[in-house]
Amino acid sequence: MNPNVHKSLVMQLQAGATDRFPVLAHLSYDAGDPFAVTAVFSHDGHVLARWRLDREMLLDGLRRPVGIGDVRFRPVSTGVWEELRMEFLGDARSDGERHHAVVFAWAAAVESFLRQTHEIVAPGQEQIEVDDFLAEVIADG
């Protein structure tokens, strides 16, 4: 079985109060890092942002608001379809505010991706090799 899952989705980046424009999101999961999902957002071939997301938090965000820090998720119903609203707070800008982005994804597509990750590593079955983790932390330090 392949220990990786990859999925590319077109999502909507909110610009201003109501305008949205499409961005490509590449979601990836690696069983070697079982708690994380990597999301890379791009537009016109340029990477806009890369985030490592908590897999369980992403799943919870499809059902209820979650997150109090730099990443927040919540379900949104448009009346036509269900979406996942993802809010990202980034580094400080020169004016003292923080970079801020809101992205909307079709909830069913995100849920499908997460189901595929659960086929590889079921929730609650995640394991991490502590020695390997410590070696990585020390090497980065």
Lateral arrangement of strands in the main beta sheet: 4-3-2-1-7-6-5
Query: Mean pLDDT across all residues, rounded?
Result: 88
How many strand units? 7
> N-to-C terminal Cα separation, in Å?
34 Å
Rg value: 16 Å
Q: What low-confidence regions span 5 or more consecutive residues with pLDDT below 50? A: none
The description of the largest β-sheet is:
7 strands, antiparallel
Order of helices and strands: EEEEHEEEHH
Shape: globular
* Relative strand content: over 45%
- The helical percent reads 10-25%
Q: Which class do the helix and strand fractions yield?
A: alpha+beta
Number of helical regions: 3
Summarize this structure briefly:
This protein is α+β, with helices and mostly antiparallel strands. The chain is built from 3 helices and 7 strands, in the order E-E-E-E-H-E-E-E-H-H.
Architecture overview:
- The chain is α+β, with helices and mostly antiparallel strands.
- It is 23% helix and 48% strand.
- It has three helices and seven strands.
- It has a seven-stranded antiparallel beta sheet with strand order 4-3-2-1-7-6-5, with helices on both faces.
- Strand 3 and strand 4 form a beta hairpin.
- The model has no long low-confidence stretch (mean pLDDT 88).
Write the layout of secondary structure elements.
Blueprint: E1 4-15, E2 19-30, E3 36-43, E4 46-54, H1 55-61, E5 71-77, E6 82-92, E7 98-106, H2 107-120, H3 130-140
Antiparallel strand pairs: 1-2, 1-7, 2-3, 3-4, 5-6, 6-7
Q: Which terms summarize this structure?
A:
141 residues; alpha+beta; seven-stranded antiparallel β-sheet; 48% strand
